[in-house]
Every structure is written in C-alpha cells, then in structure tokens.
Amino acid sequence: MRVRMKFVLILTLVVSIIFVSSIFIIYTLFARTRTQEFEKRLWAHAYSNFLVHYNVVDTNKSVTVKLENYLPGYPLYLQTILIDSSLRITKKFPIDLSFKVDTTLMEKIKQEKELPFSVGSQQAVGLYIQKADISCYSIAIGYDKYGISRLSSLQVIMVMVATGAIIAVGLFALIYVVVVTRPLVSLSVQMRKIGENNLSQRVRITRGSVRNNEIVQIASNFNEMLDRLEKAFQMQRNFVHHASHDLRTPLATMLSQTESALRKDLSPAEAKRVLESLKEDQLGMIELSNALLLLAQYENLNFSPDWPMVRLDEIIHDTMMSAKKLLPDIKIAFNYAKMPEDESLLSIKGNETLLRSAFMNIIKNAYKYSDNKSLNIIMELLPDAILIHFENTGRTIDARDADRIFLPFFRSEQSKNEKGFGLGLSIVKRITEIHNSSISYRAVDGVINRFTFRFEKI
User: What is the C-alpha separation between 15 and 22, in angstroms, rounded?
Assistant: First the structure.
C-alpha cells in the first residue's frame, strides 16, 4: 500500500474513532438524562398521590420546588398505586388496574426509600413514605413516549451525521494528502531523472524557508548531496585520467627505448645508459604506485578517539632532523609566534606517524620550489586552535590554482618543469582531514608561499 493511501486511511480511521466515540458518549449521556428526568416526573406523581390521598401538607421547600418542576404534564399510560404498611392496596389508578404486590420488591423499596425499576417497557418509581404517623408505599408507573421518541430521532440523526462526517473526513484527508505530498511527488520525479550521466542537474527548490519548510530542506539537502557526489565523480574521473596518463607516459618511453635498443647493436656503454634510463622510469612508476596505494589506504582511515596526545612541536623537530638527513643542503628555522605559557596547549590527539608524513611532504615540497632551499616554520597558538605555518620564498601559485593544488594529480604552472605526480599535497590534505583539521595555501606579498595547518583544540 502506498504511503499516501496509508496516511489517508489512518487519518480517517483515527478521526472516525474519535468522532464515533464522542457521539456514543453524547447519546449515552442523553439517554441517562432522559431516564433520570422521567424518574423525577414519576416520583412527583407518586409523592403527590400520597399527599392527596392522605390529605397531608408537605412544607419542605425543596420538595415543593421539585413537585412544581416535575408534576406538570401527565406521563403516557400513568398508573399510581398506594399500598399501606400491611402491603394492602389502598388506592390505584386507573381503578381497573391489575397490580400484584411483590413482597420482595416492597422490601427493596422500604430499604431504599426511593427505588426506580422497570415494568416491561415502562419505567416505575417506588417510594416508602413515613410522614404524619403514616407509613405506606407509593408507586408510579409510566411510559416516556416523547423522551424515547426524541432519543430514537437523536440516534438516527447521529448515525447519519457520523456517516457523513466519516465520508467528509476521508475526502478531506485524501485531498489534503494529495496537496501536501505533491511537492514530494514532484521531487521524486525529478530525482528519478538524475543519474550518473547528468549529475550536474539539480532539483527545483520551492519557495519557503529551509528552516521551517521540510520540503525545501529535503530538496536543499539533496542538491548538496549531488554537489558532493558530482565532486567525487569528477575527482574520480580526474584521478583515472591523470593516473592513466602518468602511467602511460613512462610505459611508452620504456617501450620506445626497449624497441630502439633491440633494433640496434649497442655498445656496453650505450646499453648501460638505456638500462639506467629504464631504471629511472621504473623507479618513477614505483614511486607513483606507492603514492597511489598510500592515498587509497588513507581514504579508509578515520579519526580514532583512542589515539594518544602528541606534541606537535616535538613531531616537527623530529621531522626537521629527518629532512636534514635526506636533504643535506636544506635550511629550516622553527619559531613560536608567541612562547606558550602552558606546554600542554601544544598537544592534540593524533597519529604521530601520519603527522610526520604530512609535515615531511610539506617540507620536501617547500624545498623543491624554494629559490634558496630555505624554509621557515612558525607555530601560533589561538584560543581554539593551533596553527603551523610553513613558509618559503619563490614563485607563488596563481590564485585560481590555490584551491586545486590539493586535488590528486593536479600540477600548477609553478611545478610544470619539476618531476612529480601531484599526489603529495593530496596525501597531506587527507591526513589533516583524518585529524579533523585542515590545510590551506596563501601567497604572501607575492613572493612567499605559505601552507597553514589548523588543528582544532578538543
């Protein structure tokens, strides 16, 4: 069953149950009120019959008011009986009334003083009266034709009203659900049209506030999801394109060199040069494969709350020492923007190996593109974060390429003439994301390249 129809049925059922229950309560209360009102009328006639027969005057104000309110009007088929204390009928109306005294009933009336009961389809009230040295029973029997007729009419009216109301509620629920879900249906139709080949298409967002309108919120969230998917697909296509290109070039070069060497009779020196060239290309392919495997491995890593607290400045010092062994002519300076008063503020939860790899990649990148093989590292403490700036002088990156240098295989104009595959900064970015942190690039004064790590304090 569709959600629309299910909602219509549930809404109709719930409203119908509430409505029918309300009608049933009203009918029950009306029936009880009618019975009680008629019993009071019978009481008035039974008591009045006693007063008239025994010529007794009752000055009780509440009794007088009750008689005035309920005595007028003769109930249909009214019958009255007076029975003395010895259970002998002293008066009955009409005179030919056939009434047999039931001792059990009389005993109940005597105990209750006032007892409503039924005689066939008629109502009756029995009174046991002790007044002016008189003890007797007074019984009034009658049929509330008008009240029962009204009750029957009310029953018919309520059944008709309930039926009409349930139909009306069902139609209203159907129309309401159709109107309310129309944007969702439209949204669903638009979603079905979007596929892998047209991820640039977006669903139309209807008018309304994102905060207060759930349909607008769904459409907006779906479009944001499409943005992320489109970006991911584009990165995948770029990744495949650049990876195949970077693998195809050295493979084609190696094949060309091998075919050329096979066609010629090479001297040992020439063969050695060919082998060295092939070795260089093979090393490049190994480096590319390792970088691709490393990037794929990091894609599956996530931040772990079980990681220990690590000192960022100590990791930087260790990385600097490793870099100086790898690059003997590099010059690295490390400083604090402001000396920390509390050394614990320099620690974060992290993976030391990953952080050292990220810092080493940035140092090697700065060394490669620096004009003087020098690098400055500055650590800055903020109230909510730790910033680490890596700065080197040299040719800066164009502003239009600043956001793309962290994409896999992307190479800016600055790096076109340098060896590399454009994966180092992608690996660095992924490591920072694993640590719930970020890295950014900014050109300072047109001559300084600044990469900034931002580690949020927890």
Answer: 11
The one-letter amino acid code at 340 reads: P
At 310, which amino acid appears?
V
> Are the C-beta atoms of 35 and 123 separated by less than 8 Å?
yes
Question: Which residue carries 């003997």 as its tokens?
Answer: 328
Long-range contacts of 106-113 (CB under 8 A, 24+ apart): 106/137, 109/137, 109/139, 110/137
Summarize pLDDT for 261-302 with one digit per residue, the tens. Answer: 787 777 888 788 878 877 877 776 776 666 666 666 666 667
Peptide bond into 94 cis (omega under 30): yes
Q: Is the dihedral of CA 150, 151, 152, 156 positive or negative?
A: positive
Sequence-distant (6+) residues with CB within 8 A of 33 are none
**107-to-101, 113, 125, 410 alpha-carbon distances in Å:** 11, 10, 14, 108
CA torsion 249-250-252-255 (nearest 10°) is 180
CB 134 within 8 A of CB 40: no
Residue 288 tokens read as 């590319």
pLDDT of residue 243: 63
Angstrom distance (rounded) from CA 167 to CA 15: 11
Rounded to the nearest 5°, which phi and psi values hold at 64? -60, -45
Tell which residue, 46, 30, 28, has the closest CA to residue 123: 46
Compute how many other C-beta atoms are within 10 angstroms of the C-beta atom of residue 94. Answer: 9
Query: Which is it for strands 331-336 and 309-311: parallel, antiparallel or unpaired?
Result: unpaired
Q: Output the six-digit token pair for 99.
A: 């009434």
Residue 214's nearest CA partner among 252, 244, 180, 248 is 180
Nearest to 7 by CA among 170, 215, 208: 170
Distance from C-alpha of 73 to C-alpha of 126, rounded to nearest angstrom: 19
